[in-house]
């Protein structure tokens, strides 16, 4: 398998973490979808990374689709419960964390636009989403060791990826000071090789 992505994409990082946790061998191919010469649009008509190219050259895209596929490919280190309410609980955490990523990416990109074209109200709206989501994450995590109970899961992968991206692109958001339990969880996650070896760069 090949994973097409960039070193700055949090969505690609999430897939890389799952590949490492599942101990699945793959080739990581760097491609920036913002470059005019990018090959990403030929693999994903939406022009986004990550894209997973399977052994038969078919492709999967959207990190949520990719990580769910990867978890089913290998039985070891299951990150998603098989079915039922426990599975939906983990997927809900993933949706919340991915929503933080969506808002953070939107705020970051808007802030990069020329000042005359930039919308301060749009940026503020995205940051409000982040603040509300962090509040919910902190409240629901409570004193649990992991997001979805007593075991490391895809919920933790998604939340850790989102928190890491805030550090990378929106470091002025002082989430550690406001949410000590999220800081504790993040420190636990960064002690795992899958997280430590995929820190965003660029």
Task: State the major sheet.
Answer: 4 strands, mixed
The total beta strand count reads: 4
What is the arithmetic mean of pLDDT? 97
Question: Could you estimate the helical fraction of the residues in percent?
Answer: 55-70%
CATH topology of the largest domain: Glutathione S-transferase Yfyf (Class Pi), Chain A, domain 2
Number of domains: 2
Name of the top-level CATH class of the largest domain? Mainly Alpha
Distance between the termini: 25 Å
SSE string? EHEHEEHHHHHHH
Task: Describe the protein in words.
- This protein has 202 residues and is α+β, with helices and mostly antiparallel strands.
- It has 2 domains: 2-73, Glutaredoxin, CATH 3.40.30; 84-192, Glutathione S-transferase Yfyf (Class Pi), Chain A, domain 2, CATH 1.20.1050.10.
- It has helices at residues 10-22, 40-43, 63-73, 84-112, 120-141, 154-169, 175-178, 180-190, 193-196, and strands spanning 2-5, 27-30, 51-53, 59-61.
- A 4-stranded mixed sheet has the order 2-1-3-4, covered by helices on one side.
- Helix 1 (10-22) links the parallel strand 1 (2-5) and strand 2.
Report a brief summary of the structure:
Helices cover 56% and strands 7% of the residues.
Describe how the helices and strands are arranged.
Blueprint: E1 2-5, H1 10-22, E2 27-30, H2 40-43, E3 51-53, E4 59-61, H3 63-73, H4 84-112, H5 120-141, H6 154-169, H7 175-178, H8 180-190, H9 193-196
Parallel strand pairs: 1-2
Antiparallel strand pairs: 1-3, 3-4
